[in-house]
Amino acid sequence: MKKCFVLLLIVMSFFSCDDDLVSNEENRLFDSVGFLSNVLTNHILPEFRTFSSDVVDLIEAKDAFVVDKTIENLLNFRNQYLVAYTSYQSVAKYGLGRSATINFNQNLNTFPFNLVELEAFVLSDQSKELTSVNTQNRQGFPAADFLLNGLADTDEGILAFYTGENGTDYTQYLSTVVDRIDSLSEQASNDWEGTFGNEFSSDSEFFNLYVNTYIQYFESTLRTMKIGFPAGVNTGTISPISIESLYKPEESRGLYLEALASSRLLYTGINEEQSSLSKILINLGEEGLDARIKIAFLEAQSQSNRLNENLRLQVETDNNEMLLTRDALQEVVRLLKVDLTSKLNVSITFQDNDGD
Amino acid sequence: MVITYLNKTTKTAPLAVFRVFFGLLMLISTIRFWVYGWIDSVYVQPKFFFSYYGFEFVKPLGNWTYVLFAICAITSVLICIGYRYRLAIILFFLSFTYIELIDKTTYLNHYYFISILSFLLIFLPLNTYFSIDAYIKPKLKAHFTPQWTVDAIKLLLAIVYIYAGLAKINSDWLLEAQPIKIWLRTRTDFPVLGSLFQYQWVHYFFSWFGMLYDLLIVFFLLYKPTRKMAYFFVITFHLLTHALFPIGMFPYVMIVSGLIFFDSDLHEKIIIRIKKIVRIRPFLESNIIAPKTYKYSKIYHKIIAGILVTFFGIQLLLPWRYLCYPEELFWTEEGYRFSWRVMLVEKVGLSVFTIVDSDTGKQFEIRNNDFLTSFQIKQMSTQPDFIVQYAHMLRNHYIQEGIANPKVYVQSYVTLNGRLNKQFIDPTINLANEKDLFAHKKWILPFYETIKGL
């Protein structure tokens, strides 16, 4: 037995000698830590910073509106809401760490917004907290969308809700919705800026989880929730009210395109020098697959550009374009989920889970 | 010659040691499975189970599965200490095999190995030495045993290794170093060896070494002058694979099983060592009765001979059944299981099912996670027999939901050993009407390539 150990040690030391010769990290064909730290510094942190600052502006706009309920302040509030909702599209794909434990995405963007017994809900105490799981579909951006765009047909009509009989309750609810967006964003953002960000960018174990999260976001949120559900892919019946930004439907395509572009950029990388999934494939000699994925992304984008900016209208008038878009996204899913994971030896730990 | 061989005897110690370690490892792996929460996630949670062809009568037991595992654990202990051995090993074989038959999603070559090994062990006198049984019933005690009882275990191990080696003689494994290449090149963070894993030659080295190891190791273990060196290789090889790949307890099973090739001296020493560690006095002093050879009764001997000849005959022939199927084995997986094809393919698939209501023409896509666990989805996506079984389950489900004639279609794409994904199943075939038989499944699309080799 002792002999065995001695021999084992010799073999080990032989390999470790060799190790010194080639352990130059830069030269590695596959460097998961380098990749993760690049994702953190060039994608996650900048995107979260933009989002956080947009949320700060949103809070200010909200405060101004609460103090002085004028049409002008409403319009400004609405404007800030859209800015924040747009930058949210980029950070939605990082459902890891604290974002996962606080259900960042479920709380911020579960749509469609729940209209059942709304008035009673607004008047209840629940609407002043929004911390319960049952209220996931009564808060976040879809709730803000409803409260800023959907309460009435005209701006005056909407304003009347905040100044009328139950005005205090509606104002309070709106305020809680925005404050909660702020507090959840702050928690997620601090986590990435602090401990979790450090762990994430220094431990190769996160590579698997990261790729899984990325593909899951693309499949479940981007493909299924934003396009598949409204197009009725899983039911056979179209569901126009399942679109994002239902109460200002002309913004729905814009938000979706933002999410798609940001996902694509995360795949390709911001520039040539940085590590990215694309770069990793190229380094491993898988240029063919990389090219296919890039083409599939471009085709998905160009098909998506053919959609009406109002996805509700698109579904109601010509759902076939929605189905074509969905197919184009599915092509990306297929390459990512089948080929990319296989080539990178990433085992899929979820399978088209819809995050519900 | 056969008669003289059958009359040859050897010390019983190797069998006793084998029994002790086998029981111990089975206990550990049962506990491990339990502690990881896998009983729940694999056997209790799923709503649907993929039965083996011909074993549809094996039903999931819900929470009673825990009882089955408890039986496995208890019998493992009994096997280890050699108490009521025959009953224990029979119960172990039955409960373990029942668990395996519940859902083929969990099929692993090494679970199959445990099943057939425990079947073999039913017929061997593993409790005649260094066991409670022999202590209680001194008449049972035997220092010697027919040589073939030890050799039977060696033969089973030889079949496992050599068939695994033969299966590696194919162009993907030897000429492309696949799937080893895919598995190693992203493991650059692996301690010590990691930085080597990016080199092509390392992938080829692992592939060729693995093939030669599997083919030859048994011969080096059988040949006394090379035995120690060979066993050192067994330890290194299996520990390395254990560190690199998620293959659970299998490496330990093989490391411990390899001991059977050593002379009885080593096993006697192990037994003395165990006795010192365990310190059960009466048990220690049970060596007084004169040496004796275990003898099977005549009738029993004949029956066992018949069973074991059939058993090994099946083991030798089963791996070749793939030759009866057209098309590429790695692609269709027809005749793939139960053949020691270990770590040969890296497959990932995506299978999206569509239900079409024949009466209304309405169609919609299935979300697989409404019906299957992610583990089941993963296995189902790349294996045609799973796909058709699942399609039938969907058909039945939607008939209950009120669709009189549901048609089931699948868009299925699979990647094999680093090739770009290809469409796997004919998307125009209504799987609701296709049967899951042993016959070749014509609705599997061609692979359009050949992987040369056995």
Q: In words, what does this structure look like?
A:
- The complex is a heterodimer of chains A (356) and B (454).
- Chain A has 356 residues and is mostly helical.
- Chain A is built from 16 helices and no strands.
- Chain A folds into two domains: 30-203, Up-down Bundle (A middle domain of Talin 1), CATH 1.20.1420.20; 205-356.
- Chain A has helices at residues 2-22, 32-67, 71-91, 98-101, 104-108, 118-123, 140-150, 155-163, 167-193, 195-200, 206-231, 252-268, 277-283, 287-305, 311-317, 319-343.
- In chain A, helix 15 crosses helix 16.
- The termini of chain A are far apart.
- Chain B is an alpha+beta fold and 454 residues long.
- Chain B is 53% helix and 7% strand.
- Chain B contains 19 helices and six strands.
- Chain B has helices spanning 2-7, 13-35, 38-44, 65-81, 85-102, 109-122, 132-136, 147-167, 171-175, 180-185, 200-222, 224-244, 250-257, 264-278, 281-284, 298-317, 329-332, 374-380, 384-400; strands at 9-11, 144-146, 347-357, 363-365, 406-416, 422-423.
- Chain B has a four-stranded antiparallel beta sheet. A two-stranded antiparallel sheet of chain B has the order 1-2.
- The radius of gyration of chain B is 25 Å and the shape is globular.
- The interface between A and B is large, with 49 and 40 residues.
